[in-house]
Every structure is written in structure tokens, then in C-alpha cells.
Amino acid sequence: MDYSKYTVETLNKLLLKAVSTEKFEMAAEIRDVINERGGIDNFMGLDVQVKIILDNINFERIYSVMEFLDWKIAGKIPSTAVTRRHATKLLVDVWNMEEGYERCSLESGGLRAERFIYDGLKMLKLSFILTSWDIDYEAVTLTYEEYMGE
To answer: How far apart are CA 33 and CA 83, in angstroms?
Structure first.
């Protein structure tokens, strides 16, 4: 396809759509055109990072855990394909979150997509979370007994 007639803004929208639908070859072509015009400031762009993450995270293992735990979403255990599409959407959405934060995340259905900015470069991370716990600001000054209500 001839992308030369499109503006960088339109190409960026096409790039997001290509990544969202996992059309990584098309995304690479679009990214190359944007790069030629000086429009991308990230060494490894969204398309490459999402592809690497999707190729390496074990969706079959996620499905097995969800099946073992009978973890249903909307009444059924999501297939690996559904989980993969959901992961892609979370990664794209977190990439596009407001840039005023060095770290941000989106979580849904056991998945956590995180975006970090370091030295001006965006980096993505995808996790499958079974359990977590954190201590909020007000609790930091308490003793263990005070926190636990003992």
C-alpha cells in the first residue's frame, strides 16, 4: 500500500489500528514511513514491543490456570485467542495513556499492562496476576499490630 499520501497523524492512527489487530507486517511498513518523516521518537515502537510480548507470554498457561481455578469472565473461561486480543488492547491503551507519568498501568481480567518511560523511551510490560497486596500511604506509619487491628 502507498502510505506516502497520508499525514503523520493519520499514519499514527493507522499504526495503532494495525497493532490492535495484530497486523505487524503492515505496522512495520507504516512505522518505516513515519520514521522516514522523523515522526517516531521511540527506538522500539509499539508494534515491535507488542509483538515481542505476545510472542513470549504463555497464553496457554494463563488459560490452564484460569481453567483450574474456574476463573470465569462474563460467565465463561476466556479462550487463549480472547485473552490475547484483550492483552493487545490493554497494551495499546496503556501505551497511549497521558505522557505526564513515568509509570502507568491498566488491569483487567487478571492481566496487567504497564508502560514505563525512562530516558524518554517507552517500555511495555504484560503480567498475569493471581494475587497481590500493597500498603497505602496512610498505613505506612502504623505498626503491624495497628494495621492488623490487634
So the answer is: 31
Claim to verify: residue 68 and residue 124 sit in the same structural domain? yes
In whole angstroms, give the CA distance from residue 142 to residue 147. Answer: 6
Q: Which domain holds residue 22?
A: 1-40
Dihedral sign, Cα of residue 39, residue 42, residue 47, residue 48: positive
State how many domains the chain has. 2
**What pLDDT, in 10s, does the model give residues 40-50?**
555 678 888 99
32 and 77, same domain (yes or no): no
- Distance from C-alpha of 53 to C-alpha of 91, rounded to nearest angstrom: 9
Same domain, 25 and 93: no
Specify whether 123 is located in the same domain as 64.
yes
Q: How far apart are the first and last CA of the chain?
A: 68
Tell me the whole-structure pTM to 2 decimals: 0.75
Q: How far is CA 136 from the centre of its chain?
A: 25
Distance (Å, rounded) from C-alpha 117 to C-alpha 139?
28
